[in-house]
Amino acid sequence: MRRHGQPARAPQPHPIGHEYGEYGFLVGSLIDRATLERAEAEALLCDVPTHEVLLATGRVSQLDYATALAHRLGVPNVSWNAPLDLTDAVDWPATEIGLPARLAGRPCRVLAATQAPPSMLSGHVAALRGQGVDVVLASQLLIDAALEAHAGPQKIDRAVRGLLRQQPASSAGARVSTWQMIVAVGAVGLLIGGLAVQPDATLAALTALIALPFLCVTALRVVALRQGLARPAARTRPGGQRAPRIPVRFLPVYTVLVPVFREANVLPGLIQSLRALDYPPAKLEIFLVLEAVDTETQAAVAKLALPGNFRSLVVPEGGPQTKPKALNYALQFARGDFVVVYDAEDRPQPGQLRRAWDVFRQSPPGLACLQAQLNIYNPRQSWFTRQFTIEYSALFDAILPALEKLRLPVPLGGTSNHFPRATLVDIGAWDPFNVTEDADLGVRIARLGYQTGVLASTTWEEAPPVFRVWLTQRTRWLKGWMQTYLVHTRQLRRLNSELGLPAAIGFHALMGGLIGSALVHPLFYLLLVFHWLSGNLLAPSETAAGAVMWTIAFINLAFGYAVSILVGVISVWRRRRPDLAVHALLMPLLISFAAYRALYQLARDPYLWEKTEHGVGS
Question: What is the pTM assigned to this prediction?
């Protein structure tokens, strides 16, 4: 993989002889001959330099390798506490050999020990010395740490304000548009005036109007039943199909980003799940992305014996403290051709990366993202986990595949999103001001003309088992969906132009329908209770307006519930969890409570990130 200072055209290798070959200088002091031979064989299969295998598998540490190689090349090795100044290297061209630096005040050129094989580095050293340049060697970890110290403010600024500067209309960091404010105020005024002048007609009109979100969501679920559950396409079938055995030399370098915030308790399980990924370590880099304020998790990570392809990255303070900001910061250090995001409690199927690459390589260039299917590994822990399992099964096994088939915007889940890195950077990555950056990114992908697919591989997640944790998570989701809907409806004409009218209608039905139905759901219950208390629940209405209200309410509740329950029942049945089907009735009012809490937060504290606790009750 590319390193800082790796030239575009490497010079001719310079001889660096040893009886055991190019890496023989490691034998005896760091590894034995058998270990070297195994690493060389693996490197040949992966088509990477031998040192990348040794480092990625943890057989040799970066610091030890740099020390041994510096001794072999006869150049100074920069120690971890040395005063290495890389101020001039922040914008240094990648085509140049090494990075300009100052060591204890003296100018020099620093080479990363892992940027090329030893023979190639030997040639670099000879070339630079021939130009009268002092050369020092350092580990890539040390160089990255020094660059972070100097470039950190610039990188955090890009992480926070990059999208806002490049695409201000696409960021939740910008203000609500004037027309949106006018519509909101005007709607409230019309409602108050109508209730004062013609209360019956106003209530009938209001009932018909608020029925629209229910009808939209119901229509979407009907499509999901027909499209997503009839005969799913090969790449959308749930389950654990074995990943295709693509020769490892053809596999790209993959970067895994895992934001971890106040989750020291789940680190052992996380590391175990990531180590289980069926992907060559020499082509896999894994970032544990930590927050500067979270010293507890930093200390826990420091105590772990992590493999060589793992790295912890601390996000500096600045801007909103959100997951998308952390991801934007970490993305600037990623060197993989493809990027995937996992959460700290995730358990992805081991073959997921291989399967994603197999789909990408067979798909047109316009495929910007693959969303793996999410499901729950603690479905029977509590009533809430059972509800969560039903929702996830319906969403990822039925609704999202239906959206993909219909070429509608696909709101991503917050984890297991696979991207070509260049495409992700091109579309602006994540919005740090949106607390459901995943849903927003899915819509932006569609607006920019790219596609999202659903991947036939499951990532198992932990569902919140108690109401307190469920409420904060659901509030954040609903607030983020409100942010996303407001952002993408700022310029309706542009939205229709970029998506096309059918997809734009689908966006309103999905995002607007989910938000609207959550907010108006209690009103339908109140209407039923009012008729029941007045003794008119089953009595014919005396007015046309009353008949309209009753008919709309009854059809929405009966048909909407029936379709919603049917999607959930079939989805959990396909997941071989039929015992959960009876629990598909009871969640809507709690979601409505979370929706009003989200609406309050949106007005009071729009960028508040209520972190979901994991490992609760486990």
Answer: 0.84
